UniProtKB/TrEMBL annotation, chain A:
Residues 61-130 form a coiled coil. The chain crosses the membrane at residues 15-34. It comes from the Bacteria. One of its GO terms (cellular component) is plasma membrane. This is ATP synthase subunit b. It comes from Erythrobacter longus. It is a single-pass membrane protein. Pfam families: ATP-synt_B.
Automatic annotation (TrEMBL), chain B:
It is a multi-pass membrane protein. GO terms for molecular function: proton-transporting ATP synthase activity, rotational mechanism. It comes from Erythrobacter longus. The keyword Transmembrane applies. This is ATP synthase subunit a. Belongs to the ATPase A chain family.
């Protein structure tokens, strides 16, 4: 086994060159290059996480804006609804007023007409009474040859007309 | 390798040989010959550097290669965060280096460069001198972090919560031993796993060569099944290469967790 057979001759050379070459590996590669490689990895990881955070922030902002838009939209819609309702109410009130005015006009016309009819009827009645009075006086003078005064004739006429 | 001689020495692949006439290089009396082992360490470092460098384009949208490098660093980062927590991040450079060094070494040892004459793959993680150094570094980090953060209280690591007072001395000794054995188990596990796989492959390859040399009968009866088994075990070895690198890194992170948080 050369490892043991040559131990005395070679151990110092083996130890020396191991130290030299492992030392080169450690100082040149381990200390010199590995931190740079890891720094690159760290930078990349940072960039990725930053990008992800940025994307998340952008999405949050978009959500916020959408929410604001929705709110505004809802408000606008409610406003429009209110406007429509108001217009409707106004129109309804206006037409009601117009209707009421028309009704009133009609009512007064009707009343007037009724009053006129009443008056006409009273006049007609009075004329009928007068005619009946004269007729009664005439009839009585012709038949009985007596004149009756206006008063008794009127009361008789009234009596008879009350049954009409 | 030894095919010309008609037999395979399964241990020869672990032989350490000085290259470029460097066998007499010394520092303060210690031999530091530039061996085949050191050469493969150098190749490993260059390959890891190339792998990470091509993946270091630092683009926002990564290409395949950058993705591959980032998945390795992310894998180590996740493992440390799962085992240690937020404090684990500062150990990523160390554990990443450890994991990649062992992984590339293990995998390089399996690359069939042997088909090129006089080039031999060499797995330096199959030497406990090498794995021992790596384990010692990990263990030192545990000790330094532990005593740095907790001072003398670090010793409470060896007394689990709710231990009856009379049991404390015994438990303390047992826990201390299990703690002190960690670097050895760490080093031996990797070394043994790598060595065993390579020895097995070489033994099977000697069956293939000897079986084919023995004639038609042994070719069918011995060489062919051995060859099929070699293919299967090579696949298994690739898995083991990854698993051993992972286990080394995972245990290191668990031990560091002990040092960071005691219990």
């Amino acid at each position: 086994m050369p490892q043991i057979a040559q131990l005395l001759d070679t151990w110092s050379s083996q130890v020396f060159w191991t130290l030299v070459f492992f030392g080169i590996t450690f100082f040149l590669i381990g200390r010199g290059m590995v931190p740079k490689v890891m720094e690159t990895v760290g930078l990349r990881d940072k960039q990725i996480s930053d990008d992800l955070a940025g994307a998340q922030a952008a999405r949050d902002a978009a959500d916020e804006q959408e929410e604001a838009w929705r709110e505004r939209e809802n408000a606008n819609r409610a406003q429009a609804q209110a406007l429509i309702a108001e217009a409707k109410a106004k129109a309804a009130a206006a037409s009601e007023k117009k209707l009421a005015a028309a009704q009133k006009r009609l009512d007064t016309k009707l009343e007037k007409a009724e009053a006129e009819i009443d008056a006409a009827r009273t006049n007609a009645m009075a004329e009928i009474e007068d005619v009946a009075l004269e007729a009664t006086q005439d009839i009585v003078s012709r038949l009985a040859g007596t004149k009756i005064d206006k008063r008794s004739a009127r009361s008789a006429v009234k009596k008879a007309l009350a049954n009409v | 390798m030894a095919a010309e001689e008609g037999k395979v020495d399964p241990m020869k692949q672990f032989q350490v040989e000085p290259l470029f006439g460097s066998e007499s290089w010394e520092i303060a009396g210690f031999n530091i010959a530039f061996t085949n082992s050191a050469l493969w360490m150098a190749i490993t470092v260059v390959l890891i550097w190339g792998f990470v460098f091509v993946g270091m384009k630092r683009e926002l949208v990564p290409g395949r290669w950058q993705m591959a490098v980032e998945s390795f660093t992310g894998f180590i980062d996740d493992m440390l965060e799962a085992n240690i927590g937020k404090e684990g991040r500062k150990y990523v450079p160390y554990v990443f280096s450890l994991f990649m060094f062992i992984l590339f070494a293990n995998l390089l040892g399996l690359v069939p460069v042997g088909i090129i004459p006089s080039v031999h793959a060499y797995t330096f993680t199959s030497h406990f001198t090498v794995t021992g150094v790596l384990a010692a570094i990990s263990f030192s980090i545990v000790l330094i972090v532990g005593f740095w953060k907790h001072g003398i209280k670090f010793f409470t690591l060896f007394v689990p919560h709710g231990t009856p007072v009379v049991m404390i001395p015994a438990i303390f000794v047992i826990e201390l031993f299990s703690f002190l054995i960690r670097p050895f188990s760490l080093a031996l596990r990797l070394f043994v796993a790598m060595m065993a796989g390579h020895v097995l492959l070489k033994v099977l390859s000697s069956f293939v060569i000897d079986g084919m040399n023995g004639g038609i009968g042994t070719s069918l009866l011995v060489a062919t099944p051995s060859f099929v088994l070699m293919i299967a075990i090579s696949a298994l070895e690739i898995l083991v290469a990854g698993i051993q690198a992972y286990v080394f890194a995972l245990l290191t992170s668990l031990y560091i967790n002990d040092a960071e948080h005691l219990h």
